[in-house]
Amino acid sequence: MPASAELFTVRTPGDAWALLVAHLHPITRVEDIDTARALGRVLATDLVSSEDLPAFRRSTVDGYAVIAHDTHGATPGLPALLSVAGEAPMGQIVDTPIALGQAVWVHTGSMIPPDADAVVMVEHTQPVSSGPAPMDLPEAGIPAAIEVMRPVAEGENILQVGEDARVGGIVARRGHCLRPTDIGAMMALGNTRVTVMARPRVGILSTGDEVIPPEQVPGIGQVRDVNAYALSALVEQAGGEAVRYGIIPDDRAALERAAGQARRECDAVILSAGSSVSYRDMSLEVIQGLGGPGVLVHGVSVKPGKPTILAMADGVPVFGLPGNPASAMVVAELFVVPTVRALLGAAVAPRASVLARLARNVASTTGREDFVPVRLETRADGLWAIPVFGKSNLIVTLLRADGTLRVAQDENGLQAGAWVTVNL
Amino acid sequence: MPASAELFTVRTPGDAWALLVAHLHPITRVEDIDTARALGRVLATDLVSSEDLPAFRRSTVDGYAVIAHDTHGATPGLPALLSVAGEAPMGQIVDTPIALGQAVWVHTGSMIPPDADAVVMVEHTQPVSSGPAPMDLPEAGIPAAIEVMRPVAEGENILQVGEDARVGGIVARRGHCLRPTDIGAMMALGNTRVTVMARPRVGILSTGDEVIPPEQVPGIGQVRDVNAYALSALVEQAGGEAVRYGIIPDDRAALERAAGQARRECDAVILSAGSSVSYRDMSLEVIQGLGGPGVLVHGVSVKPGKPTILAMADGVPVFGLPGNPASAMVVAELFVVPTVRALLGAAVAPRASVLARLARNVASTTGREDFVPVRLETRADGLWAIPVFGKSNLIVTLLRADGTLRVAQDENGLQAGAWVTVNL
Which segment, A20-29, A58-67, A367-376, is predicted with the most confidence on average? Predict the structure, then answer.
């Protein structure tokens, strides 16, 4: 007779996470890798700029470097007349100062000539073709003089030295997860190598006598191993490295051996337990025996996913997940993904979501968080979320879902037409 | 003198994309890969189930398989008494039918005995320890009889054959992008290999005499190549393969040669043009000469990023991006990422975003879409978006941004306190 049902001390997801996260620390292994291959990796150290960026004053527009004072009061009706002293070519040192009454043609990114303190956009000037050329012009197309139709303020359209980054300044903190723009920023600073956190190793064990490898054809009563692969992909997506320990038969000694090996070799361990009560009881005992302090949470008020175990075994977080795939994935999103991020020491990113209107009523029980898979549909009047109903054991059905709708613990279901937040 | 400014026919981002997308078709190269390694890849064919899933009737809960009729009218005060005929073990065929007045102990995932048509959850039963045992029980803990305190309907807590997937049914369409759950679903169906779209090859050329490789120390007036690496990472993130053609000097013949090679070898080409007007004019002419129909869009009403070129050269989309990194990234997000997705034939996913309140006023000009980088901050009263102000040439500054706020074309800025959608 199943006795364990009575032993459940069901926790809310928030309380359960609080109990676990108090024990989690970033791993200490780091890797030195090419910045060009660092997309998605997490900085292991603060990134300090060894240079001023930009290293010289640059124009942010195409136009004319001027002394701002020369343009004060300029209007289309009463423009300021300036002689063009030359061009500031790209990629070259510009060291001839400009004088009052002069302008120098600059490109976006050109160095600003000494004594110039602003740039007038080319759109706010017009060439004076008949004006006298004060000097030999380096490029045929540059006029000898211009009329400026609008005043510029000091510093306008100029990027100052160190405006983007300063020598010794902290550019990004450890724990920052590198995005495409960040890769560019690091290249701008000359950081072609970067020290990132190693990927936390997450050991994954499938258990259950009815479970067979996916390449085999199941006999009646058997099912293919789904969880090991879905969880591996989730761990990988979160920035971890999945280590699969195969399918462990319904044998306590075998499970203890495999779980013990995973605990020694990995930074976290997942037991995707057989879904029957007796398997769950066995997982609970095996997890409890892996190391101290042992089981922290047994039972979470979430549907699907109630029979969840969270434990710490000698510094290694251990998860006992429900056997059925949809439940296992909900619980893994709630606890395994944030654990991988915590092991990476990664800054917590806001969860990606969209706002949509609910197409149908969704029932829920107060006192429990429900996670309802939904399909998103763009209609003439905006985005709608259509619940993908199905029992929690369905997995293929979830292919049709674009995201998950959370019905909070204190809500008694949601009405059709309500605006809801859908996690992608 | 810059003549090209007059040639701009500035398009809205929507119009510009419509002109380009009309020419885009998915590439024809596919790859047959291990499903376990297919995370993030795009299905090249419809996925058809070759099996019924589940293949047998399964219980979705721990409890007792019964004939529903036997439980009608059952209440805690007047429970239905059923004798327990045995257990349905996991992973085994159960072929003994049950009779009226009988119950069989089933685990979550157990096969349902013939003639049973519902499962009562164990929580809604209680054992009758003194009842007579009708047969030898396979497991010591199972009671000889139970009282059922609540009626079940026909089919309740049973997963029917084919309820998750049916033989010959389409499980997912080509163009579907594979997520962790999908990897699991494919394993459940025995699809350990999968045909996915090859990664579209995107050629990336940096141009400009002032641009040097990131491993070099820039002299005054020089800048490191940022765009090639930031764009490569963006292309990779979108599901493409970046092919870098290096830094091309400011020489028309060299640019024509490199762009022509990239057009022949790749599925799309990006010219990260030097940012000066003369470079832009040269890129425009080189792109126009790459193949028909040539330039479709020259100038997009977006800040930053106005001087953007979109073209088709003999079937290959070609992008002329602004030279400054922040502008190049905004434009690449708008046009290059959706182009890679279109070349993959990928279903359009809703853009990941969060709702937040704006911490400061943001000015904008009507008639132009503004993209403002923002930092997200979780305060006691929710999520706030703090604009990261900076000139569009800044790149390191963008490390502090968590996402981008779009100010629509018809909006005249946004007020502090307004609810805004931030794309991550």
Answer: A20-29
Examine the domain organization and report whether B46 and B134 are in the same domain: no
* Range scoring the smallest mean pLDDT among A145-159, A288-302, A389-403, B366-380: A389-403
Same-domain status, B284 and B209: yes
**A299 and A258, same structural domain?**
yes
Q: Do A180 and B222 touch (CB under 8 A)?
A: no
- Total count of domains within chain A: 4
A-chain residues near B378 (CB < 8 A): 350
Q: Which residue of chain A comes nearest to B190, CA vs CA?
A: A214
- Would you call A230 and B92 a contact, using CB atoms and an 8 Å cutoff? no
Q: Which residues pair with B321 in a beta bridge?
A: B272
Tell me the pLDDT tens digit for each residue of A136-172: 344 457 889 999 999 999 999 998 998 888 999 998 8
Q: How many CB pairs under 8 A join A and B?
A: 338
Instruction: Mark whether B37 and B83 lie in a shared domain.
Output: no
B284–chain A nearest CA distance, Å = 17
Q: What is the pTM of this model?
A: 0.86
Same domain, B127 and B236: no
> Strands B201-207, B268-272: parallel, antiparallel or unpaired by DSSP?
parallel
A352 in Cβ contact with B353 (< 8 Å) = yes
pLDDT tens for residues B316-343? Answer: 999 999 877 888 888 999 999 999 999 9
Q: What SS3 class is residue B229?
A: helix
Residues A210 and A138 in one domain: no
Complex confidence, ipTM = 0.85
- The predicted-structure confidence for B46-89, as pLDDT tens digits, reads as follows 999 999 988 899 888 889 999 999 999 999 999 999 999 999 88
- Determine whether the interchain pair B424/A1 forms a contact, defined as Cβ–Cβ distance below 8 Å: no
pLDDT band, residue B349 (cuts 50/70/90): low
How would residue A129 be classed by pLDDT, with cut points 50, 70 and 90? Answer: low
Give the CATH number for residue B143: 2.170.190.11
**CATH number (domain holding residue B166):** 3.90.105.10
Q: How far is CA B6 from the centre of its chain?
A: 40
Whether B70 and B121 share a structural domain: yes
- Strand B102-106 relative to strand B125-128, pairing: unpaired
CATH number at residue B326: 3.40.980.10
Cross-chain residue pair A181–B383, CB shorter than 8 Å: no
CB contact under 8 A, A181 and B35: no
Q: Could you tell me the residue range of the domain that residue B266 belongs to?
A: 4-28+199-343
Question: Are A221 and B122 an interchain contact pair (Cβ–Cβ within 8 Å)?
Answer: no
CB contacts, 8 Å: A187 with chain B: 214, 224-226, 229-230
Question: Mean pLDDT, to the nearest integer, of B154-178?
Answer: 91
Mutant choice from B123, B177, B181 vs A, greatest count of A C-beta within 10 A: B181
Q: Nearest-CA residue of chain A relative to B347?
A: A402
Q: What does the pLDDT average to over A323-331?
A: 84
Instruction: Report how far apart the first and last C-alpha atoms of chain B are (Å, whole number).
Output: 40
